[in-house]
Amino acid sequence: MTLDWLIIGGGIHGVHIAARLLGDAGVDPDRLRIVDPGDRLLAQWRRATATTGMKHLRSPSVHNLDLNPMSLKSFARKHRRRDPDVFAPPYDRPALELFNDHCDQVAETFGLADLHIRDRATTCSVDCDGVHVRLSDGREIAARHLVLAIGASEQPLWPDWAPRDDARVHHVFDPGFDGWPSSTETVVVVGGGISASQVALRLLDEGHQVHLVSPHALREHQFDSDPGWLGPKYMDGFRREQDLDRRRALITEARHRGSVPPDVMRALRRAMGRDELRWHEGEIAGLDERHRGLDLRLASGAVLEADRALLATGFVTRRPGGPMVDDLIASASLPCASCGYPIVDSTLRWHPRVFVSGPLAELELGPASRNIAGARRAGDKLVEAARNGAGES
Ligand SMILES: Cc1cc2nc3c(=O)[nH]c(=O)nc-3n(C[C@H](O)[C@H](O)[C@H](O)COP(=O)(O)OP(=O)(O)OC[C@H]3O[C@@H](n4cnc5c(N)ncnc54)[C@H](O)[C@@H]3O)c2cc1C
Predict the structure, then answer these.
(1) Are residues 181 and 60 located together in one domain of the fold?
(2) pLDDT surpassing 80 at residue 68
(3) Of 89, 93, 160, 239, which residue is least crowded by CB atoms under 10 Å?
(4) Are residues 103 and 212 in the same domain?
(5) 337-341 — which CB contacts under 8 Å span 24+ positions?
């Protein structure tokens, strides 16, 4: 059978887009599937957010995976979640547990678990009839339309000095991360943003000795980009910009990379004030492995002795998708900007049969493209495309 829609990636973006295609565009569930190697949908999201120990999302409650932005608020009311901590000020940021329960409800409403193919797509090709996707178990799936919702979570950024084969050095966003200490240790957390800060605070809470090494001073921002990027305030100018190198520069400038919101900043300052958290600003020059631990040499000359290093250094900036997307580009002559990212139309169409979201859509959707707000925006575009007949041709 040929599907109408195949979505590669069952993260925040793939799940929301599936819900929107089914619920808003009337796509028949028998004709839509989501391919993702996780045991369940949103497995990466759950793993990464649980590792950081974050209690609340950084984004407001209207940024959720259901069709209606107010759905998360109604869900909280219906399930009598009246605990004052369920939404944190400012901007009603939902507790992670509430957000995840609500994601489960969205998945249940649309029967998404039954549409999930637990596998990895290894190759895709397109012709005028549709798309052919091969999975790692050898199966082939044919679809009229493909959505690449593959995110960046499989590309954690490892600094050059960090060995990948030392059981005491881990990246907290590694898809197979299993490096959390099981007994009390001295841990060096590396990174300058919200995740590194939250990991450091979680470790302190659990009784570890913690150093936080950040490449720059702590920067405070409520959101990871100005909310003006979610609407016409900044997006009108962004869309008018025809030079894609300039658009890339606007995205880079707009992102508050390596920043923390005020509540996390307060918690860090409290922990530093009590001498519980030792914070160091600077680069790591190298690492020496000792018999029972690590010496991390800072560029300043200081040496930190630790049992373990946890990297919270974010994700690499190169286009996600690896050889699968490289080959698709080559075989279908898909247009890319000089930064390597897709050039797509206003409905996120990269080819008559191929749509993108998340990082792959950012030259069209701007700095918030990777976030939940970006997933919602991509959902709007995909619904528009499906209603205009993309699913029937
Ligand atoms: C700790 C943390 C906290 C965050 N907090 C917020 C927040 O509060 N608010 C907000 O708006 N944003 C937040 N974000 C950012 C953003 O919302 C997430 O990064 C989001 O999860 C990205 O979703 P995604 O679906 O694009 O990608 P991913 O989460 O990367 O999911 C993509 C999926 O595609 C799969 N995949 C990749 N290649 C293939 C293939 N070839 N075949 C099959 N499957 C494939 C991957 O395995 C993965 O499961 C946070 C991010 C992190 C890491």
Answers:
(1) no
(2) yes
(3) 160
(4) no
(5) 337/244, 337/245, 337/247, 337/248, 337/363, 338/244, 338/245, 339/244, 339/245, 339/248, 339/363, 341/248
In angstroms, what is the span from residue 44 Cα to ligand 1's centroid? 7
Q: How far is the CA of 109 from the centre of ligand 1 (A)?
A: 21
In a shared domain, residues 30 and 82: yes
Q: Is 45 in the pocket of ligand 1 (CB under 6 A)?
A: yes
- Give yes or no for residue 191 CB within 6 A of ligand 1: no
288: which DSSP letter?
E
pLDDT at 82 over 90: no
Residues 122 and 58 in one domain: yes
Angle at 24 (CA atoms; ends 320, 45), nearest 5 degrees: 35
Q: 184 with 121, same domain?
A: no
Average pLDDT over residues 252-275: 96
148 Cβ below 6 A of ligand 1:
no
Atom of ligand 1 nearest to the CA of 52: 1
Report the SS3 class of residue 342. Answer: strand
**Where is the domain boundary, 311, 330, 348?**
311
pTM check: above 0.90: yes
Say yes or no: CB of residue 154 within 6 Å of ligand 1.
yes
Q: Is the CB of 8 under 6 A from ligand 1?
A: yes
CATH number of the domain bearing residue 380: 3.50.50.60
pLDDT class for 291, splitting at 50, 70, 90? confident
**Domain boundary residue among 311, 333, 353?**
311
Residue 392 has pLDDT above 70, yes or no: no
Same domain, 304 and 321: no
**By the 8 A CB rule, do 18 and 43 touch?**
no
Pairing relationship of beta strands 349-351 and 354-356 according to DSSP bridges: antiparallel
Most ligand 1 atoms within 8 A of CB, residue of 12, 13, 20, 57 to mutate: 12
In a domain, 102, yes or no: yes
